[in-house]
Queue: 3 jobs
Job 1
Amino acid sequence: MTKTGDRFHHPGADADKGAGKAVTCLSLLLVGAGVTFVADRLLMTGPPPPPAARALSSPGMAGG
């Protein structure tokens, strides 16, 4: 440990900062992936009906 100005500098402190940034980035990536997965599962309502089926089932489109 060496003194630089008013602070003490630990020899491994720079390596710890890099490891901390890597852990933070990985954590954010995993949280983002989890949120995306959950949102996809919650919002999934099935495939939309084909355009012809929508046109046939629309009210007011019955012939007459």
Job 2
Amino acid sequence: MATGRRRQRGKKRTRSIVAEQPPFTQPRLLTEPTAVVSQDDLERIHQASLRVLRETGVDFLHPEALAALAAAGATVAEGRVRFDPEMIDQYLRLAPSSFTLHGRSPKRDLNIGDNWMAYGAVASAPNYVTLDGERKTGDRSGYQDFLRLGQMLNAVHFFGGYPVEPVDLHPSIRHLEATFDAYTLTDKAFHVYSLGKQRNLDGLEMCRIARGIDEETLDRQPSLFSIINSSSPLRFDHPMLEGILQMSSRNQIIVITPFTLAGAMAPVTIAGAVVQQNAEALAGIVFTQVVRAGSPVMYGGFTSNVDMRSGSPAFGTPEYAKACLLGGQLARRYDIPYRSSNVSTSNAVDSQAGYESVFALWGAVQGGANLIMHGAGWMEGGLHASFEKMVIDADLLQMVSAFLAPLDLSDDALAVDAIAKVGPAGHFFGEEHTRERYQTAFYSPMVSDWRNWESWTEARQPEAKGRANGVASEILADYVKPAIDESIEEELREFVDRRIAEGGVETDY
């Protein structure tokens, strides 16, 4: 077993961690997002981005994309595309400000845009750390366990890709088996990697089968999304552009996300890095609307800095959080839903992992992010996924949701009568007003330990990572496969088997 902890399945427990979670609900940001710069300064960033698009341009490494952009009014020469500001403005106005991402089960549908927020699981890590502490290259067993854990954690709203890459599946068929696992082990919204036309086509067909809908319904109801990364600086490669062509033409969601590291693939200043991020994002967003006007698209921000001593990416930094806020302001200027991430560079589930994630997440939340990628379980700058970190992050995400929940200001909540009844020098522990609400008064975290020092010491309670280890083990032991129509699962399996028999997709190895 990938987790190494299934032996706890028969262990008696006095409570169900799964049952005590808050329900699967989407939070809403009911306060105004933070504006880190003035409107005048935001306009300066916008105008600087337009200048980059008009004067320098962006390379599009796809002949069909170049032809479409030229026909739409862009200036195209030797693979370089330059955009007039009027063209940018024209096509930005076509992008929807909100839409629904449909899950396999209707109860997992997600609102994207406005002030809605959705949290995703860790995605695309090449390695993972088991519950026995072994760091392993990604495999199908570990991938499946992350799906199971994410399915059972109500704070996880969607899967933004494979939580860990199952490299024991050959690249030619990996997307088929991994997507089959995602649609049978979970019922939450999923993602398709844009790594070639056929992978997109297979992903679209498996999504249609899993939802039990016809082609027309799939084209009407966005049910799948794909992250499109520009190759910074100022380039979109062939597989990413093919992903836009296939997904946008079918009215599925594209999340344009430049990966701009200040000092490496972008200017060393945060302002300059965000100007480049914005130019790349606008170019990609415009192309989605050239492919299909009104197709759902998101503005993604992933700008951070590098450690200039080593050249490695740094996440959860003040610079990262500031870039999150700037990205959110720009997305709101264009009235397009915004994607950000919960990140950490820590190698271990320790205090660094905690404070970097809090800082990154708060930048995303206060930036008004609608889609938070890597919300739970992302470690080591994305190089490994962690079961313990997924549980700890789920607690953190639920705490954020509780913080964002509207304050109850009813007469009953104001509790004037209860205060009068207790009076001076009394206490509220035994008061009826307290007894009626004690189970739902506050969020009860899965991992935190609030006992006093003496009882904590006497019980020899483990640190947060150890407690999270136990919680993850219990949740995996309690995993329940979500309901799926038997005929749908059979059709999915038949499709996968047929495509495997056909050879899957071409690879270079």
Job 3
Amino acid sequence: MKLKPNIYENGIDYTLSGDCYLPELKLPEETRPIGRWGRLHREYLKNSRPLLYNELLLSGRLQTILADLDEQAAERCRLIVRQMAQAEGITEEIKARDPVRWVQAMNSIRSRAEEIVKAELICC
């Protein structure tokens, strides 16, 4: 079989480069942004699970998985913050009456919620 400068074989495009045909690999483009949680998970995969990271990257699924995880983690964090604030009695009334106390309480709640999300979804 005589090969042309550009060929299509087995579902993959090949281009002649010197004496060799090289596959033209294209990863699907993900349009959703990857926020804080997605970036944290990407770093976790790179450092702690390099084989999985490379498999996801080369299969073209990494961006989609990171975008999905980012959305799930952000929603989970919001839910935990709401539930903890309710359980601890941190209300809009406290915010109006004593804003410094409210900010301190909400910062503490947000910090604890982020640690929970990190343990449950990001570093697992």
